């Protein structure tokens, strides 16, 4: 057998290479630079790398060739393993914007009086002398870790075969497991969150892998296009295909935090440093939904009568569990985590609204377009909300318990108003981005005949308004008890306030004029098959 | 087809043992070993299917899985080590500060 060198389409995949290259440079910087200079260099490297990749993504996106009679644009590169098409480019841009906001939050040093929110030395025992000595230090390894996670997030929705998808899944997960455990304060919680995230994540990727093996056994190839062809020809034993697809879905639904695989979400969101929570709540969701869409639409599009009923049940359960458990929370980060679970349910409502292009009315929003738009609206709101959570502090650091937030609106009206605005967007109140996103996913699910799911979705969004508004009331109208310690807002540097401003602006603009972004999502076209 | 059935059966048995181990064992290290057993069961299935289909995709995938598993060991043991040093226990039941 002769080895043939694969031809790589550098012109299309270079944003990906930039991100991975910068991550490797970051490791070199970590090894060779004196400690004092690392912070500035690492932040600059990460920010510039992400910006260059973002510009590259836009350039690549504008130059994609049309294929399949103009229904899709782009190409299948890397010997079939990387697909750069319209949806890929759109999701890349979303991930990169979310990561840029994430880097800004990572680099914030004013809140902890001159050091970052990450542990000075992760190996030092909590409460030991070593930890006290490391107190003034900064963990700058977080930036290369973030870049590797971003690289995985970019590769995940672009993967053209199951093996690439698995590798991307791990590349995005492993750095996140570590980042979760690196909090400077409340280190026991942080380490416990990392342990839970890691064990459950590894468990679920084992399921993904076995699903991959079974689908490979069915189709004789890991390529999504070849799997699609095998499904259409009804190649062999379809029981193997169905078990395989089920196991693949376990892995992906775990990553997006859908019921019954949501158990890690609140613990990890609460235990992780808030900057990491902000970054991964947006980035992981965008990337994993991109991969889920590609797997279901491209690989198993012909078999959608098998997976759509499953997704109906998962979507309904996810929305109900997310909303009901969010109501009983007393911690802001956990409440936002359960609200993230509910949003996963709304996104799945969009995913199961897939229809053949012939069934769609002229100019109708496709499910792909609706889900991508929803991801954009959700990212701005969630990053902004978690950025604000990192500002609200008392003597022991971030104050996430509800009673500390009482009356915050009187002490810091601007910050409380921004938080209220993010909550209203998550609740889907008109004139915010969340409303347009919800409207888009509900209409596609409705037109695909999934009305029971839409009924549950509307009911749970109405129910969800209750706990969002309850929190707004807590901030603006409740008076804290006389001797209770309350949290106040610590003034951040431009990094965090800029991130919050971008979040507010994004949420507002997408709510008032959603047209351009919806059009952009429509122009992205379909996945290349 | 028939000549690989035994291997697929064995891999399914190994995978199930691994999954049951993850769910029932209490020590984080043992839980993690069970995850590794699941990954190796996948490798066996991949190689067996590669033999059945007569192409190399599955065998190449098995190499990737080994590399990924090695990376996962590094990250996983680092996390388990830290938590053990802090708590003097690697039991997954003891780590219970985050609830509900």
From TrEMBL, chain A:
<keyword id="KW-0812">Transmembrane</keyword>
<feature type="transmembrane region" description="Helical">
    <location>
        <begin position="40"/>
        <end position="60"/>
    </location>
</feature>
<feature type="transmembrane region" description="Helical">
    <location>
        <begin position="335"/>
        <end position="356"/>
    </location>
</feature>
<dbReference type="InterPro" id="IPR010096">
    <property type="entry name" value="NADH-Q_OxRdtase_suN/2"/>
</dbReference>
<feature type="transmembrane region" description="Helical">
    <location>
        <begin position="239"/>
        <end position="264"/>
    </location>
</feature>
<dbReference type="GO" id="GO:0008137">
    <property type="term" value="F:NADH dehydrogenase (ubiquinone) activity"/>
</dbReference>
<feature type="transmembrane region" description="Helical">
    <location>
        <begin position="309"/>
        <end position="328"/>
    </location>
</feature>
<feature type="transmembrane region" description="Helical">
    <location>
        <begin position="89"/>
        <end position="107"/>
    </location>
</feature>
<feature type="transmembrane region" description="Helical">
    <location>
        <begin position="195"/>
        <end position="219"/>
    </location>
</feature>
<keyword id="KW-0472">Membrane</keyword>
<dbReference type="Pfam" id="PF00361">
    <property type="entry name" value="Proton_antipo_M"/>
</dbReference>
<dbReference type="GO" id="GO:0016020">
    <property type="term" value="C:membrane"/>
</dbReference>
<feature type="transmembrane region" description="Helical">
    <location>
        <begin position="276"/>
        <end position="297"/>
    </location>
</feature>
<feature type="transmembrane region" description="Helical">
    <location>
        <begin position="13"/>
        <end position="33"/>
    </location>
</feature>
<feature type="transmembrane region" description="Helical">
    <location>
        <begin position="448"/>
        <end position="469"/>
    </location>
</feature>
<feature type="transmembrane region" description="Helical">
    <location>
        <begin position="165"/>
        <end position="183"/>
    </location>
</feature>
<dbReference type="InterPro" id="IPR001750">
    <property type="entry name" value="ND/Mrp_TM"/>
</dbReference>
<feature type="domain" description="NADH:quinone oxidoreductase/Mrp antiporter transmembrane">
    <location>
        <begin position="159"/>
        <end position="462"/>
    </location>
</feature>
<feature type="transmembrane region" description="Helical">
    <location>
        <begin position="368"/>
        <end position="392"/>
    </location>
</feature>
<keyword id="KW-1133">Transmembrane helix</keyword>
<protein>
    <submittedName>
        <fullName>Unannotated protein</fullName>
    </submittedName>
</protein>
<feature type="transmembrane region" description="Helical">
    <location>
        <begin position="142"/>
        <end position="159"/>
    </location>
</feature>
From TrEMBL, chain B:
<keyword id="KW-1278">Translocase</keyword>
<feature type="transmembrane region" description="Helical">
    <location>
        <begin position="30"/>
        <end position="50"/>
    </location>
</feature>
<comment type="similarity">
    <text>Belongs to the complex I subunit 4L family.</text>
</comment>
<feature type="transmembrane region" description="Helical">
    <location>
        <begin position="6"/>
        <end position="23"/>
    </location>
</feature>
<feature type="transmembrane region" description="Helical">
    <location>
        <begin position="62"/>
        <end position="84"/>
    </location>
</feature>
<dbReference type="GO" id="GO:0030964">
    <property type="term" value="C:NADH dehydrogenase complex"/>
</dbReference>
<keyword id="KW-0813">Transport</keyword>
<keyword id="KW-1133">Transmembrane helix</keyword>
<dbReference type="GO" id="GO:0042773">
    <property type="term" value="P:ATP synthesis coupled electron transport"/>
</dbReference>
<protein>
    <submittedName>
        <fullName>Unannotated protein</fullName>
    </submittedName>
</protein>
<dbReference type="InterPro" id="IPR001133">
    <property type="entry name" value="NADH_UbQ_OxRdtase_chain4L/K"/>
</dbReference>
<dbReference type="Pfam" id="PF00420">
    <property type="entry name" value="Oxidored_q2"/>
</dbReference>
<keyword id="KW-0520">NAD</keyword>
<dbReference type="GO" id="GO:0016651">
    <property type="term" value="F:oxidoreductase activity, acting on NAD(P)H"/>
</dbReference>
<keyword id="KW-0472">Membrane</keyword>
<dbReference type="InterPro" id="IPR039428">
    <property type="entry name" value="NUOK/Mnh_C1-like"/>
</dbReference>
<keyword id="KW-0812">Transmembrane</keyword>
